[in-house]
Specification:
By secondary structure, this protein is of the alpha+beta class. The protein contains 2 helices and 10 strands, in the order αββββαββββββ. It has an 8-stranded antiparallel β-barrel with strand order 1-3-4-5-6-7-8-10.
Length: 177
C-alpha cells in the first residue's frame, strides 16, 4: 500500500472513531491548503450548537441566520451574524426602543473584528479580537478548527458548558462569488 493510501485509511479510521465519540468532525480538507485558501468573503449557511449525543439545534441564531465572515490578505478579519427572525422594535429608532427590545436585538446579533492567523498543521484559525459587540471578548484569541471543502468552510468552536453539557458550535459558510 502506498503512503497516501495508508494515510487515507488512517484518516478514515480517525473519522469513524471521532464520529462515534460525537466529537467535532475531523478537519480533513479536499482543497490544497494555504493561508490564502481562507481569503475572501463567506456567507453563513448554518449555525448549530451540538450536544454530546450529536443532536444539533439552531436556537441561538435560528434556522436561516444571515451574515458574513471576511478574511483579507493583510490578515484582518471581521464577522457579523444576525438571527432569523431578527427582533424588531415596536417604534422606529433605537432611542425609542424599550430596554427589553434592545436586549433582544443584542441577543440577535453577533459581531467582532480583528486579525487572524492560520495553523495549517492543526487546521485551526485563530481570531485575535480587537473589537466586539461582547466587551469581554476584546483582547481574546478565539481559535476554531476549520474544514474546507470546495466553496464550503466549516468552523468548529472548542467545547463549552451549556445547560450542564459540553457542547460546541459548528458554523458552515459558503464562499461569496
Amino acid at each position: 500500500m502506498k503512503a497516501s493510501g495508508a494515510l487515507s485509511v488512517v484518516l478514515l479510521q480517525l473519522s469513524i472513531t471521532m464520529a462515534a465519540a460525537q466529537l467535532p468532525a475531523p478537519v480533513v480538507s479536499s482543497v490544497a491548503l494555504s493561508k490564502d485558501a481562507l481569503i475572501g468573503t463567506w456567507q453563513i449557511v448554518t449555525v448549530e450548537t451540538v450536544s454530546p449525543n450529536g443532536e444539533a439545534h439552531t436556537k441561538w441564531l435560528g434556522v436561516r441566520p444571515t451574515g458574513w465572515i471576511i478574511y483579507n490578505s493583510s490578515a484582518h478579519m471581521s464577522v457579523q451574524l444576525m438571527r432569523d427572525p431578527r427582533p424588531l422594535f415596536a417604534m422606529p429608532g433605537y432611542r425609542n426602543a424599550t430596554e427589553r427590545e434592545k436586549a433582544a436585538a443584542l441577543d440577535g446579533y453577533y459581531a467582532y473584528f480583528g486579525t487572524f492567523d492560520v495553523d495549517l498543521e492543526a487546521r485551526t484559525v485563530t481570531h485575535h479580537v480587537l473589537g466586539s459587540l461582547r466587551p469581554h471578548e476584546v483582547g481574546r484569541k478565539l481559535t476554531r478548527q476549520f474544514r474546507l471543502e470546495g466553496d464550503r468552510l466549516t468552523l468548529t468552536t472548542p467545547q463549552f458548558d451549556e445547560e450542564g453539557e459540553k457542547r460546541f458550535n459548528r458554523l458552515v459558510w459558503e464562499r461569496v462569488k
